[in-house]
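WARN  no MSA supplied for this record, continuing single-sequence
INFO  ligand: iron/sulfur cluster
INFO  echoing inputs
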Amino acid sequence: MYLCTGKILRVNLTTRKISTLSTSDYKEWLGGHGLAVALFFDLVKAKSVGAFDPGNTLVIAPSYFSGSLVPAACRTEMVGIQAQSYPYEWFTRTNVGGRFANMCKYAGFDAIVLEGAAEKPTWINIVDSDVELVDATNLWGLDTVDTQKVIFKNVIGSAGYGKWRATKKGETIQRPAVLTIGPAGENRSRLGTVMTDMGNAFGQGGFGGVWGSKNLKAISVLGTGSVEVANPDELMQARIWAEKNYGADVDNPRINAWQEFITSHFGGHPNRGWAPYDQQRRASGCTGCHLNCRPRTSSGYGNESICVDALYYQNWDLSKHGKITEITGYAADLAQRLGINSFELHTELAYLKALYDKGVLGRGMKIDTDLPFEKIGEAEFIQQLLTQIAYRKGIGNDIAEGIPRAAQRWGRYREDTESGIMAAMFWGYPVHYDTRAEVYWGYASIVGARDINCHDFNVPAYWMPSLDIPAKKTPIVTAEQVAKWVGEMPPYHDPEMMNFATSNIYSVHMARTTAWLLHYSTFWKQTCGLCDNAFADFVNPYGPNNRGITPEGELKFFKAATGRKISFEESLEMGRKMHNLSKAIWTLQGRHRDMEVFPDYVFSVDTEGTSYVPGEPPSYYMPTKENGKWDYRNVVPRHLDRKKFEEWKTRYYELEGWDPKTGWQKEKVLKDLGLDKAASELKATGKLK
Amino acid sequence: MGKDNGETKHNGMTRRDFVKISTTVAAALGGAAALTLPSRAQAADTQTAPASKKFLIVDQKKCAGCMSCMLACSMVHEGSSNLSSARIQIIDDSFAEFPNDVEIAVCRQCADPACYYACPLQDKALCIDPKTGVRYINKKECIGCRKCIEACHFTPSRISFNLKHKVALKCDMCQDTPFWKQTGKQACVEVCPQNAIKFTSEQPCGHKEYNVNMRGQGWAKLGLPTD
Ligand code: SF4
Ligand code: SF4
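INFO  complex generated
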């Protein structure tokens, strides 16, 4: 089997039993997400356990393409019952880059199944298929960086990094790749991340807290093995073809306004907009990447943190000091070290400040805290806040539960989701791209189980027009052309999928946008492992006529690496199958259509958009078709209509072949997809239509 | 605010390079070497090898530490991706400050090829291509004695070892790539997305000429340093 090692590691932390399963039994699920969901489905009998229950099983799976030469594919998936979503702890997925995926395969495993909970702090040491459960008492309490450093020393020994050493099977100068939690995870925070190297996180899902509940501190992998591909020459040619025709030319970059800030496409490049403090110095990449988006700085602060993890404290720093200082980088570093989800921190800070300004939160206030809000923007404030969260001190004990649960404890949930000052938008996750404007983002999140975080349409449909137009630049591709390219995609062949006019946002076209995003992402990004920062690639300033590499690139890589020629339609069908398996798990957990709703403010308060150009009013430019004419138009202010959203849900369920009354799957759909096991499990619980 | 350093560099040379070369020099000056016969590597200056006409030069500050070069090198020579089989090695430290966070360890096709002198099967196992002067290993003849690995001037040794087949693996400037149909190209150069590795036919002299600044105006446009 190409791209696979053939073995899946199964560790029972309660009984300390270590065993293996054969990957060939899961051949059709390929790797990454597909493999992880299939393993979860088969191995977990009680799927409705709580996140912190020892019965919660986690599956970690390097992506199918990882370990090979396919670019931007060193991604690892983890699935299990999450701690972050509110009010229900849904089964979900999370994903990380860095070096782990490749190294895990070189160490001999296509996936790691974690069952039970260890009696005392434990880490797992994997070297070339040898697996050992090690006492982690000496690591418990250490931050994510120090933990990794201790483990590096332990595994590498005295020779040090960068010297040849022999394992049982080979020789290497490399150091292991380590997944670890920090103090936040140890203290079962629902904001706890699982980190690897400096800036790579399994960020969403609160899985750091789940690891903490299992007394699992770290997993280290070091391997000297190989990943075989079907046709090495073809893969080399495909990689060179992709880089030359679609990759950024770092010696002669083509930069428009939007690319100053956004790099999420195959031709993306390292960019100062992602981490402006202390000047970004090195563009650094996950293993095998062609894009290399992560900054490393001369102070070391904020190394490898990009986007929100690098920026969450920036505006506070800026307004305090009149410029972005090293404090922004320090804040990035601290969140990574303590293992705290900075995406949630990003909106949380604004919420806490709003409560402080209202006189509800502060010294001697109803929500009593000694946090020095007058020093917001300074290192001291963020240091105190993060420490309180990580160690559950003061109001940190509430915030460690995530903002919706904290608001619930403070008796503010209803009021603050009606006004929208607490910007939780889908299952308690903070707003990312606003559902009221970029509707499919919220739709995919709410019919899923987390902030969907898939930027496939987001670059051509939002960032490009929304940054270029206010800056008085003309987007390199017209709205009509974007719609045409998306409209070429099977299975829907529907340009109206890109029409974000209010008249179209509850239509079957928007149901297709949502389904396409879910099926494409499940297969190509979460299973094969193509990074969301590079794929899907519709608009690309390096491509012919600014056209991106999708779908030609994906198919070329698949063919070269596996020897199998598949059509794009088949790939989306496989994504649909994998997505249906997750859907079956949600239904078994108790999901019903009535639960899939946004908080009140989404239906009553307008979003205004954002102002990126000083002096320009806030806006949200997207492709729309009005009176038969495509253009980029400002779609805000806008809020959603509750009744029409319910109608949209019906259209979406019907498109997926699900029952519109309950949102549950139908037996025929599952059987046609070959998901017979899921069908019978659902039938036994009376949740199959 | 400051963070603890990774390995610091001196005069553009890493501490690792520095220590290894200092030791060699000390030994050659008669310290430890006085007790034993000089090794073939230490006797290097008494031999002359024809010069190579193919070299790789790199920009350590431009490199992204992505290891794509390693994966490609292994792919074209072995037909699979394997970090241990790569003839070029990247040492990448997430926690260190720029520029001490990345080191490209690449064979220099040295004018004074200690590996070649050390090989007991000189010209059979460790060979010099008569046309191009490239120093390469003939896997079929290699007996896996590791002498070349030990003799290499650098740390880590630019020659790796395949434990399973007991053969040494060395950069051959991609003269023999059984798994990649091409002529005269180098896999690492072709694949490197940062254009941080270049081919040259001019013999570089010393650390500075192997490690050059390839960062021009385009790099500056990305907000990245060119100094
Ligand atoms: S491919 Fe280029 S950028 Fe990546 S590690 Fe190698 S030399 Fe550095
Ligand atoms: S020139 Fe070829 S053999 Fe030498 S390091 Fe580069 S890829 Fe490997």
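The helical segments of chain B are 15-28, 68-78, 114-118, 147-151, 187-191, 206-210, 217-221.
INFO  checksum written, moving to next record
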